[in-house]
Amino acid sequence: MKAHFFKYRGRRIRYFNRYLWFCYYGFFLFPFLILLGWFSWKVFYPRLSTFSNWQMYLIPGISIVLYLLLVSGLILGLMHWSRLKEGYFASVYWRQLLVRMLIDNRFVYTKKQVSEKQTREKMRLPKVYFYQKKQELVVSFPLDGGRFHERFLKMGHLLSEVFLRDLIREEREKARINYVFLSDSGRIPIDQCIAENGRIHLMKTLDWVYDQSPNMLIAGAIGGGKTYLLYSLIQACLSVGTVDICDGKAADLAALGDVDVFKGHVFYKINEEMIICLRNALKEMNQRYAYMKTMKDPKYEPGKNYAYYGLPPHFIFFDEWAAFYGSLDMEARNRVDKLIQPLVLKGRQAGMYIILAMQRPDAEYFPSGVRDNLTFRISVGRLSPIGYLMTFGEDFKNKPFYNKDQPGRGYAFPGFDVPVEFFAPFVYKDYHFIKEFEKFTEMIVYDFTVKEDSQDQTMGDDNQLLQEQLERQMYLAKDPKGTSFSDAHIL
Questions:
Q1: CA 283, CA 50: separation in Å to the nearest integer?
Q2: TM spans, by residue (predicted)?
Q3: Is 236 exposed, middle or buried (0-12, 13-18, 19+ CB in 10 A)?
Q4: Which of 28, 126, 165, 350 is most buried when burial is the number of CB atoms within 10 A of its CB?
Q5: Which residues are annotated as a binding site for ATP?
Q6: 236, 194 contact by CB (below 8 A)
Q7: What is the DSSP letter of 109?
Q8: Is the peptide bond before 298 cis (omega within 30 degrees of 0)?
Q9: Measured between alpha carbons, how far is residue 372 from residues 32, 141, 213, 216, 415 in Å?
Q10: What's the rounded Cα separation, in Å, for the pair 424 and 185?
Q11: Are 217 and 377 in contact (CB under 8 A)?
């Protein structure tokens, strides 16, 4: 790691910060108290000596009380509003919460100060720092081999529960460990969920870079927002490539079959129809590989993917995969296994991407190697602990996952780091996906048949030229005078 002469770590957590919220409240209230004292001295005090009845003191007293209540309410309201909007006072609240947690868990150094009259204990906290970035909270702990060293290494899960924020990574530095939490939901509206430059924008801080994290697994509970998430992804993918849709329950996605742009690309009526879709996808994948190897402009280079040769991506969305796979007999299941496995394992370089969606991604619904190679994974809605384990794997079995009653909310694993809190693109109440899909006049479909014919024509021209060169060499071998090839035909 690159060393820095000076690195800003944020605000150090001090022992007096346990009353930090009250200190700020008093700081902002103090000027108003000064103003009240000056006004009382100049206006109320000269008239107090003239009051002969105690009832005459009620108006000044009530005025002062109302003034203090109004000012206090305004100050506390603005502080609370700033906290809710993740402003400056959110940082103040987190720092107060953090120092109280450290004190309650006895992360405190004590030192006795003995004087002639009494003995006092001075308390000091370790060098813990708090830093609130635009979309992250960072808490830094010292690793100096002291008595709190081992406990500081295990603070991630505790802080995640205290802040009710998702731990997205741990950063190690020399003699320090930093815990980084997601402070902002990062949710984007549906009109910002677009595909560009090989990525689909899902949140402010999260993109699906499908060239790097090929294929996707979506696990969604009933009413969790899975269908809207699929619609959002389909709309984004439709603008950059080919989209095929299969619906194992002939339910939500089947309705897209009536939209003109999806004619011939939606399969749901019978299982055999969806199997044919997978078979055609596998055939196209092989055609793509064959086409790329015959390319001359640009010339084929090993390691380059479909985008280098100007090919569009091809996305196959399969909703309710578990229902479809579970309804197959043994013979049909074997056929599907032979189709889905090469698509998932070999499709990335050819630009073929599989998106499988279901309620519970149990291992019995996947052939060997398929679930592990669905690199980008998303959960939406309330899942059980075993549901999270099936979705994100054994590597994150100790990570705390929290369920919230918010449609479209869940977790996402982009293929690296750890699963992070996820919010599907926000869909407006008056937003209609069908009307948006009807705005597309045609789908991007690459016709490999034409390209193959073109390649055959090119190869035919090359063969004809090669044949003429051979004939010329044979003629020159027979005619030592070196008569030109064209003259030979004239003669």
A1: 102
A2: 21-41, 57-79
A3: buried
A4: 350
A5: 220-227
A6: yes
A7: E
A8: yes
A9: 63, 35, 12, 10, 10
A10: 10
A11: yes
Strands across the sheet containing 242-247: 266-267, 242-247, 314-319, 352-358, 216-220, 376-380, 409-413, 420-423
Q: Partners of 409 in the beta sheet?
A: 423
Q: Coil, helix or strand for 362?
A: coil
> What b/e readout covers 293-327, taking b as 16+ CB neighbours within 10 angstroms?
eebeeeeeeeeeebeebebebbbbbbbbbbbbbee
Q: What is the structure's pLDDT at 251? A: 83
The CATH code for residues 190-446 is 3.40.50.300
- DSSP per residue over 153-180, as a string? TT-HHHHHHHHT-EEEEEEEETTEEEEE
- Which tokens hold the place of 75? 């100050």
- Can you tell me which residue has the tokens 């993917």? 305
Residue type, 18: R
Task: Return binding residues.
Answer: 220-227
Q: Residues 194-208: pLDDT tens digits? A: 999 889 999 988 899
Bridge partners of residue 139, in order along the sequence: 130, 179
Sequence length of the chain is 491
What contacts 223, CB < 8 A, 6 or more positions away? 381, 407
One-letter identity of residue 305: N
Task: Indicate the DSSP class of residue 18.
Answer: G
Mean pLDDT of the chain: 83
Angle formed at CA 443 by CA 440 and CA 444, multiple of 5 degrees: 130
User: pLDDT band at residue 451, thresholds of 50, 70 and 90?
Assistant: low
Q: Is residue 470's pLDDT more than 50?
A: no
Bridge partners of 120?
A: 113
Closest residue by Cα to residue 315 from 386, 211, 415: 211
**Inter-CA distances, 112 with 15, 118, 123, 276, Å:** 16, 10, 9, 80
Mean pLDDT of 308-326: 92
CB atoms under 10 Å from CB of 98, counted, come to: 22
Largest CA distance in the chain: 142
- Is residue 475 classed exposed, middle or buried when 0-12, 13-18 and 19+ CB atoms within 10 A define those classes? middle
- Tell me the CA distances in angstroms from 441 to 49, 265, 267, 436, one per residue in order: 87, 14, 20, 11
On whether the CB atoms of residues 318 and 361 are closer than 8 A, the answer is: no
Q: Using pLDDT thresholds of 50, 70 and 90, give the confidence band for residue 2.
A: low
Instruction: Return d(Cα 273, Cα 296) in angstroms, integer.
Output: 36
pLDDT at 416 exceeding the cut of 70: yes
CB distance 39 to 111 below 8 Å: no
Pair of tokens at residue 15: 């022992």
Residue indicated by tokens 């929290």:
402
Task: Give CA–CA dist 41/36, Å, rounded.
Answer: 9
